[in-house]
Design a protein that fits this description.
- The chain is built from 23 helices and 15 strands.
- It has 558 residues and is α/β, with parallel strands linked by helices.
- A 6-stranded mixed β-sheet has the order 3-4-15-14-12-13, sandwiched between helices. Strands 8-7-9-10-11 form a 5-stranded parallel β-sheet, sandwiched between helices. A two-stranded antiparallel ribbon has the order 1-2.
- A hairpin with a 2-residue loop joins β5 (115-116) and β6.
- The longest helix is centred in the C-terminal third of the chain and has 22 residues, at 486-507.
- The radius of gyration is 26 Å and the shape is globular.
- The N and C termini lie far apart (60 Å).
- It binds 6-O-phosphono-beta-D-fructofuranose.
């Protein structure tokens, strides 16, 4: 085991607490949630946290007090506290890219100094925030107009991954708070359909394009940006000087922005210590600030900051992100579970699972540890989800009766922005019922009674009963939020960010790089010119050659 920045980089599965948890698992692997609740009517009191407007109920998990104690020991043994302090004090914890990880600075509303490379990063953070504030004001007030002196009506964010998913999810989640005079659109896919279908809705005279790319080298984003610029010029009489009024850039790469043709006065900067998937708090959030207003953007930052302080200061036994991470580790590494679902019971949060997919899987889908050694335990789980109740009518069958156990996070607002008749009550009754059903299941005995009451004979019951049994004992977390607003959404996102961080510390991996996305990009660059001519391609394996040649044969040459 090595030591880095005060953190002991011990192999996770060599820790004393890991061994104790292994033993503990073998002792309690047959525990039953229904029994645990029957035996202890204070279980909810013991296993929930109220933090401001958030209730986090983790009582419906396959844990006992001892499980929790051992998981907390694990957090201590891995030196989680030091690791958290290292992130907050700008240590270069993203060591493969030699960078600090400072999304917490972007929302440091206490404005305490954060020194990195001898400089207080808050100076830059605050100055870019001021620049965003000013820009948003100018757009909203009409001080900045399009080339034909018209007010902007549509913002088109062109970006992908972290330069898309975060702002896109937030704008969608906070639609009720939107500035009514601006529409927002997100174009991410290099599939021309995404851009074409978006541009159909756009009047170039009132369109503001935001080219969002940390690196400003991402193929998808630059391709869409070039096409959007071409479209814009064609529609507006090919006047280059109009570009500066209608295109802005968000990036860390001013050189590439300039080369693209965007004046650096129209560029909003961020820094390499902001990871793409953690960047919605930076100038990448420009679409959020324009769509929801700058004050709401600040409230989002404030919410996240409140969770940063909670994560940093609360004892781990009262710390929502830490508990979420520990419980997920319990399932992934001791129960051998592979996947976890996140089900928002809020239509506005429909993109939250997609956002979490990048956050969790790009961060923790790693098989090399911080000692540069291959890992022999499971890391990042598979995350997916859909809004409830739709999910109930598609994949919940597998969650209730499938052969795999899928722990589920249920998320809902107590108060809806659209309380039509009793619809929100119906929605929430489903939320409560699903967590109860997954926990309790339905026994043979209960079913027998039910089927007899329905008048089925013994023969019919024998055949049907096994299909209708619910074993239950399926774990869930429940997160109830008084209302989804900019502040509470900031909190929710930050909770998951810190959950991911904690998991990465325990697994001893670097959660902040993403080398795994590089190979495909490299190969695509090699293949692209091969598609330019009609030559038969032989340079790949026979499957790849076959696919390319099939495409070349069948394509309609325009
Ligand atoms: O390819 C993955 C990735 O690098 C993500 O980590 C990132 O969020 C996305 O691409 C977009 O990158 P950029 O903001 O540099 O265009």
């Amino acid at each position: 085991c090595k030591k880095s920045q005060g953190v002991i980089m011990k192999k996770f599965n060599k820790l004393e607490s890991y061994k104790k948890l292994k033993k503990h698992y073998s002792e309690i692997k047959n525990i039953n949630l229904r029994d645990l609740f029957k035996k202890d009517n204070k279980r909810f009191d013991k296993f929930h946290i109220n933090f401001e407007q958030i209730l986090f109920d983790y009582s419906k998990n396959l844990i006992t007090k001892k499980t929790l104690d051992l998981l907390l020991q694990l957090a201590d043994e891995i030196n989680l506290k030091t690791a958290i302090n290292n992130m907050f004090s700008a240590k270069e914890i993203n060591f493969t890219e030699k960078r600090a990880v400072l999304h917490i600075a972007l929302r440091n509303r206490s404005n305490y100094p954060i020194i990195y490379n001898g400089k207080n990063v808050m100076d830059d953070v605050n100055s870019v925030l001021d620049k965003i504030k000013n820009f948003v004001k100018q757009i909203h007030s009409g001080e900045k107009l399009g080339y034909s002196q018209k007010k902007f009506t549509d913002i088109i964010n062109i970006g992908i991954g972290g330069s898309d998913l975060g702002p896109m999810m937030v704008c969608s989640a906070l639609k009720p708070f939107a500035n009514k005079n601006l529409n927002v659109h997100f174009v991410s896919n290099v599939d021309g359909t995404h851009l074409a279908e978006t541009l159909k809705k756009i009047n170039p005279e009132t369109a503001l394009f935001i080219i969002s790319s940390k690196s400003f080298t991402t193929q998808e984003t630059l391709t869409n940006a070039i096409s959007a610029r071409k479209w814009f010029l064609e529609k507006t009489g090919n006047k280059q000087e109009h570009i500066s009024k209608h295109f802005i850039a968000i990036s860390t790469n001013s050189k590439a922005v300039k080369e693209f043709g965007i004046d650096t006065n129209n560029m909003f900067e961020f820094w390499d210590w902001v990871g793409g998937r953690f960047s919605l708090w930076s100038a990448i959030g420009m679409s959020i600030a324009l769509y929801l207003g700058f004050d709401n953007f600040i409230k989002l930052l404030e919410g996240a900051h409140s969770i940063d302080l909670h994560f940093k200061n609360q004892p781990f036994s009262q710390n929502i992100p830490v508990l979420m991470a520990l419980i997920s580790i319990w399932y992934l590494n001791f129960h051998g579970i592979k996947a976890q679902a996140v089900i928002p019971y809020d239509q506005y949060l429909e993109h939250f699972p997609a956002f979490l997919q990048q956050l969790e899987m790009e961060s923790n889908g790693k098989y090399i540890d911080k000692n540069s050694k291959e890992i022999n335990y499971q890391t990042g789980g598979i995350i997916w989800g859909e809004p409830g109740t739709n999910a109930q009518h598609s994949f919940f069958q597998l969650i209730h009766q499938g052969t795999q156990i899928i722990p589920v996070d249920f998320i809902a607002p107590v108060n809806s922005h659209n309380p039509i008749d009793n619809q929100h009550k119906i929605l929430l009754s489903n939320f409560f019922a699903q967590t109860e059903a997954l926990m309790k299941g339905k026994t043979e005995k209960e079913l027998l009674k039910e089927l007899k009451l329905q008048g089925l004979n013994d023969q019919e019951i024998k055949k049907l009963l096994p299909h209708k049994v619910f074993k239950g004992n399926r774990p869930t977390n429940s997160i109830l939020i008084d209302e989804i607003n900019p502040y509470t959404l900031g909190q929710l996102i930050a909770i998951y960010e810190h959950k991911v961080f904690t998991q990465g510390i325990i697994w001893n991996i670097n959660s902040f790089d993403q080398w795994g996305v590089e190979l495909g990009k490299q190969l695509a660059k090699k293949i692209l010119p091969e598609l330019d001519n009609n030559d038969i391609i032989k340079s790949h394996d026979c499957s790849t050659n076959g696919l390319i040649n099939h495409y070349k044969q069948k394509r309609k040459l325009i």
